[in-house]
Amino acid sequence: MLDLGLSKMALIGAVALIVIGPEKLPRVARTVGSLLGRAQRYVADVKAEVNRSMELDELRKMKESVEAAARDVQTSVQSTTAALEKDFSSVSNELKSLEQQHGSTSDEAPWRSPYDAASQVVPSYQHPGKNFRLKRSAVPRWYKSRQGVRTHVQSGAARVARFRPKKR
């Protein structure tokens, strides 16, 4: 880098004053300042872009590691599910063979619980009967009217018009 001290800056300023002249020096200084500002902004933009690309690479690596972990979890869940299905099928085959050995023709086997999910009847859906358009309040209307609580909102003009004496 350039080692610019105060003495070197003063020397550059004096040479510029002699070469350019006192009339054009402010305009040239303004132009040089704006060009330096643009250069600094350009360098800052390049640095920001490099940082963004580095962060993007890190995010891609993190995404790949998360996807790999998700794949591992998925394969372990699938293998566990397959093992459980295999166990359940073997248990159901054993139960069928036991039913055939005992010759039970009834639907209820002696080892089944009366609370078994397969034997329970699921009730059909019944609409709750609520109307979502009606505003439900925690405080009943009769209590509000007894206590003098306003249940309907009115503007000030409407309230004045309501209680204005009628012209005859």
From TrEMBL:
Record keywords, A-Z: Cell inner membrane, Cell membrane, Membrane, Protein transport, Translocation, Transmembrane, Transmembrane helix, Transport
Biological processes, Gene Ontology terms: protein transport by the Tat complex
Region: Disordered, residue numbers: 94-113
GO MF terms, alphabetically ordered: protein transmembrane transporter activity
Assigned GO CC terms: TAT protein transport complex
Entry's localization field: Cell membrane; Membrane
Bias type Polar residues, positions: 94-107
UniProt keyword Membrane present: yes
Family affiliation: Belongs to the TatB family.
Subunit structure as annotated in this protein's UniProt entry: The Tat system comprises two distinct complexes: a TatABC complex, containing multiple copies of TatA, TatB and TatC subunits, and a separate TatA complex, containing only TatA subunits. Substrates initially bind to the TatABC complex, which probably triggers association of the separate TatA complex to form the active translocon.
Protein known as: Sec-independent protein translocase protein TatB
Source species of the chain: Comamonas denitrificans
Taxonomic classification: Bacteria, Pseudomonadati, Pseudomonadota, Betaproteobacteria, Burkholderiales
